[in-house]
Amino acid sequence: MIYCHPITAHLPRDSGLLSSMDDLGTLPEMEAASAGIPVANETEGAVPVKDASTIIDLHCHTAGIGAGGSGCFVSPSLRRNYRYRWFLRAFGVTEGEILRQGDGLVTERLSGRVGESRQVAAAVLLAMDGVVDGRGALDEGRTELYIPNRFLARECRRLPNLLFGASVNPLRPDALDRLDEAAADGALLLKWLPSIQGFDPADRRLVPFYRRLHELGLPLLTHTGNEESFTRTDNSLADPLRLRTALDEGVTVIAAHCASNGRNGGQRNLERLLPLLASYPNLYADISALTQANRLGHLQRVLRHTELHKRLLYGSDMPLIATGLTSPWFQLGRVPFAEARRLAAIVNPWDRDVELKRALGVTEEILGNGGRLLHLPPIPLPSKGSETAGMP
Ligand SMILES: [Zn+2]
Questions:
Q1: What is the distance in A from the centroid of ligand 1 to the CA of 325?
Q2: Predicted TM-score of the model (pTM)
C-alpha cells in the first residue's frame, strides 16, 4: 500500500520556491552480507516514532531505462556493469518488471517505502541531466545516466511524498529556460554532479545561471568529494572551493556528502569545505553516504564541529541505504553490539538510516533542518506499523 502525505498541498509551488549513489565504491561483496530490502519476518515495534519535527530526505535517487516512454537513459556500458543490477535490486525492482510496467515502477516502490517509514515524511527525488556536447546538445556517448526533469516532475505530482529535485546542465544553451520550467513544475532544488556532468562550477560563464537560481530561490545541491559510481569522472570538478562563484552570487548551496572523501590541491576536501562554511552563511552540507563502509568515521569527524550543526541536512543517498554498504554492523566500535543488532534488524531503509545516524550522534536539529530550509511545514507522521526483521 502506498501512503501519500498531504505535503504538496502546503508547498509554495507558485512562488518559485518550488545526487549519490555517488561513490558506491567497489565493495559489492559487502552487499551480500546484509540485505537491503528484506520483506519477510516483519514484526511490530522497535522503532520509536518521532513526529516533533519533520524529517525530509534531501538526497534520494531513482533509476530508469526509458521504459514506458520516460525518457530516462542508461548507457550500454553501465547497463552491462554489475552495478546496474545491484542498483535495481536495491530499488526493489527487476529489469523485467520495469520493461513490463515502465520506469514509474521504481518511483512507485520508492514512494511506498517512504510511506512505510516511521521517520521520514518525504524524499526529494533527484533528476540527473547528462553531459552536453560542444553544441549544447545531450551527448549520449558520454552520458551514463539521464533522468529528465519532465518525467520526474510528473512522477512527483503522482506520488506526493516524493518531491521534485531538478537537474540542469548549465552548459545547455537553453539552461535558463530549463531552470524556469523546472521551477514552474514545482522543483524544490537543483541537483548537480559536475564531476560526471562535465562542467566546472567555478566557470564564470555560469554566473547568469547562478543569478537565475538565486532569483528563483532554488538551492543548489551539488556533489563534493570523490565520486566512484560511474566509469569516468573528473574529481577536481567536485572541489568545494569551486563553489565560491555560486556562493558569491548569493545562491544557497548544499555540499553533498560534506566533501568527506578525496583531496584537491594537496588538502582533504573536508578541510577545504570547513573554512567555506565559516565564511558563507548560505552554504550547507548534507550527511548522505557518511555511514558508507568506505567512509567510516567521516560522520563523527563532521559532527565534531557543533557550530555547523545548524547547516547540516539529512540525506540518505537512496539506493545506498538499501544496500549492505551502510550496514550498522560496520559501525561496531562506534555503537555498542546490542545497538548495532537492533539497528540492523530495522527493515525500512530510511528508518534504519535515521536511527543509525542518531546512534552516531546526529541531532534532531540536523534531522529537521532540511524541511526548514525548503520552507516545508511540519508534517506529523501518521501512526503506522513499523517493522523489524528477525535477527540478521
Ligand atoms: Zn547521490
A1: 14
A2: 0.86
Residue 160 · residue 4 · CB < 8 Å = yes
Distance between CA atoms of residues 100 and 257, nearest Å: 35
C-alpha of residue 45 to centroid of ligand 1, in Å: 30
Whether residue 48 has a cis bond before it, omega within 30° of 0: no
257 C-alpha to center of ligand 1: Å? Answer: 8
Q: Could you report the per-residue pLDDT of 98-132, keeping only the tens digit for each?
A: 999 999 999 999 999 999 999 999 999 999 999 99
Residue for cell digits 531513482? 62
- Phi first, then psi: give them for residue 187, nearest 5 degrees: -60, 140
Q: 123: which strand partners? A: 57, 162
How far, in Å, is the centroid of ligand 1 from the Cα of 22? 4
Q: Are residues 228 and 289 in contact, defined by beta-carbon separation less than 8 angstroms?
A: no
- Asked if residue 165 lies in contact with residue 256, where contact means CB atoms within 8 angstroms, the answer is no
The CATH label, of 2.60.40.60, 3.30.70.100, 3.40.50.720, 3.20.20.140, for the domain at 6-373 is 3.20.20.140
Task: Extract the C-alpha cell encoding 245.
Answer: 562563484
CA angle, 383 then 385 then 388, to 5°: 135
CA of 41 to the centre of ligand 1 (A): 30
Comparing CA positions, the residue from 330, 346, 337, 358 lying closest to residue 391 is: 346
Q: What's the CA gap between 4 and 14, in Å, rounded?
A: 21
Give the model confidence (pLDDT) of 135-172 as tens digits.
889 999 999 999 999 999 999 999 999 999 999 999 99
Q: State the distance from the centre of ligand 1 to the C-alpha of 191, rounded, in angstroms.
A: 9
